[in-house]
Amino acid sequence: MNDMKKLIYILFSLVILAGCEPKIDEYSPDAGAADFTTYVAIGNSLTAGYADGALYTSGQENSYPSIMAEQFKFVGGGEFSQPYIDTEDGVGLEVTPTFDIRLVTKRILKVVPDKDCAGNPIGTFSLKPAFAIDNPDQAVLGAQLAARPTNPAPYNNMGVPGLTVKDLFIPGYGSPFGNPYFARFASNMMATVYQDAVAQNPTFFSMWIGNNDVLTSALAGTDALITPVDTFALYYNMAVLGLVNSTNAPKGVLANIPDILAIPFFTTISPQLPYDNVVLTAEQAAGLNLLYTMYGHPDIVWKEGKNPFVITTTTGAWVQMGPEDIFLLSMPTDSIKCLGMGIANPVTLVPYPIPGKYVLQKSEQVNLQNAITAFNLIIKNAAELNNLALADMNTYMKSFETGMTFDGISMNTRFVSGGMFSTDGVHLCPRGYAVAANFFIDAINGQYASHIPHADITKYAGLKFP
Amino acid sequence: MRRFTVLLLGICLATTTASGGGYQVSLHSIRNIGMGLIGTSLTYDASSYFYNPGAAAFVQDKFSISGGVSLLMARTTFQPKDVMGQYNLEHKLNTPLYFYFGFKPFEDLSIGLAVNTPYGNKLSWGDEWQGRYLIQDLSFKAITIQPSFSYKIKDVFSFGMGLVFALGNVELNKALPLEGQSGVDGQVNIKGSTYNVGFNGGILVRPVKGLNIGIDYRSRINMVVDEADATFTVPTSMQSNFPDQKVATSLPLPANLDFGISYEIKEKFLIGINLCYVFWNVYDTLVFDFKTKTAALDKTYAPAMYENKLIPRIGLQYKVNDIVTVRLGGYYDPSPVPDDYLNPQTPSMNQIGMTAGLSVFPLKGFSIDAAFLYVMGFEREGTYSPENFSGTYRTNVYIPGIGLTYNF
Prior knowledge:
heterodimer; A: alpha/beta; two-stranded antiparallel sheet; 17% strand; B: 58% strand
């Protein structure tokens, strides 16, 4: 009987042993030399969590500052408030061909029927980004955009879609005549973005800004709208100095500007559509030469075989495309297929150059890239002079051109299939923002000897497929 | 006794360890488990047919039957690199079985059969964990059936050989980073079975009474699955890229070269050592060759890069009286997986095994055998670099086992 008891004890002990999980030290978070109590994020649409061509609630929830703030909570970070817009379909701004502003919803991936040039379905289907709602009620979207957030101010996330460096300091930027994305949460009509940020007395800030100082121009297919370098330097340094000298002398992290050629908006069409995709017979070439001469462009010469498309430049001149000129994602490729865009309209027999806003010429690319290089030098110097962390997004995004893998998820900068950019080809999807947040965290940990844990990127969705 | 339990509880909380080397399972005889898995030079029962067919002719009795089961409970903790939170393997009970039979029609010849499960791996990390795009759950099992003979020349030397018929089945699930509108991951299930043949041969030398020297070689068996079923769950718009289909893959069961020496003193006390060399380098890449290639599905290569390893083992046996025999043993099992290829599919680390065993003989020749094996792994940080998945693993394995042996 006593033996039986012993046996039961031994078995019981073994069960206890088998019940325990092996111990491994947990990740031990540490704020290091920084104080994350009040974190304020300054930036543009990327900071706001804009995605899929619109601002919408869940996009904001997955903004990189929001993801970072969640991780900051492990090292003493406080609540992080964002100016939530009350729509999941989102509100985006688009410029129409007639230069009117049109409000649109976000784009989602849809399976849509392929159509011929007459608009009839041809029986096949394509997976492509399409508006969540076609032709939405402008008044409804306008009201959603104008409505103030229902959660109370102030807002730690000061990301404003469309913001340039200079815009930080423009009084009235939050007025009805300013930027509607700021007007919806500015503390008052005359407040500047910078003032509303500093008024929160941040103990830590992030600033990823300057993208629009080149991107606004690049998206319009020109180099004419680039912010002058001295203007950029003036306002950028004004912002950084103002922030580091504000009440709590905050620490912070700056991020620089990725290369436009790392963005799918500029790299998607050209690999599928060569610049010289106009293949002509000798007769067709002769006909086009006659036509272009009639319309006053004898300098454009068509020949038998492959010919470059004709485009208009920023100055309105007509030229043939160069091998390194690139098409933008905004280009209506149907017009090339059906309306003779780039050659001549097959029905009206009128020359039809591709509007310059759909093409970035090589010289424009060079000017944009030179501006990025100059701006990034200003950002780097500002970080070094003020002992701020620097997230080198320019270099980091380049590594995604060939692709990176995290936890079994491969990501690259390709449109849709790359799993990193959202359906607008410019902004990131939640998983892309989580990867960006982790890169910011690495920069902060490196600068301030802190141990902020990474976000688990597998918890953030990629593109959603129908 | 109560104090003993509390003490164990304390050990448990302080415990900080380990797992299993690759996907080889070494639980083939409760008696041998009790003494550090040294079997190559032992001649006590029909389990020799697995450990060294060469030794079987030295088993004294005309008939020998042995069977048993181990209750393998692995406990693994994972700490992802730089991310808060830890994961534990779900508690699954694996039950490797064995059965051996030996018969001596003549004094110098023995024929026999060995049935056991020398390779396998069963684990589940759950559907939602951070490594779900590498693995959610995996079950791999190979049963081998080995008819053999063993022939003895005088009382000095014997040799033996068997054909090894291996039957294997595998099933794995992992998530695909391809979300539907509701944000639910895609999913792939691969399931297949196969068989193949290898051999097991060895010799035993007994230069003086009490001293046994054994060498055994178990060949590699390549488990080729030509037509496993791959089933995908993906968003509708992606289904043409991921058609359900057949997929070819293969998993090599590595060869083992075992060398063992044991010495028996006055038929009371036995000490033995064993050196087991495992030819793990045959497992360098796991290939999945999808039969229907699409833009998204092609032949995939997952590098494994296993390295050959030597496992040293030591065991002791003491015959207390005619009724009770006790055993102790231990071994060191180095991980065949390099740091850059540490994969949650087989969370492998260097490990120490500590064993204890007991046989009770209620009748002459008949024993009830029990053993307990505690495998303590060393905490290991590594990355599966092809998927950039990093973290720290630690596993403990608790393996009680029970068996019966009858020699007559």
